[in-house]
Amino acid sequence: MGQDTLERVASFLIGLAWRVIVIALLVYALTNGVRAAYSYGHGLLYDHAMGGEKSPEVEFVITDDQTVEDIAEELMKGGFIDNTTAFQVQSKLYEADYVPGIYTISKAMTQVELIQYFTQEGKKNRELMEKNLVDAEAATTAAMETENGIEVIGGTEDENMIAQDAANAALESQAAESAAQQQYAGGNASAGSAAEN
Question: How many domains does the chain have?
Answer without folding.
Answer: 3
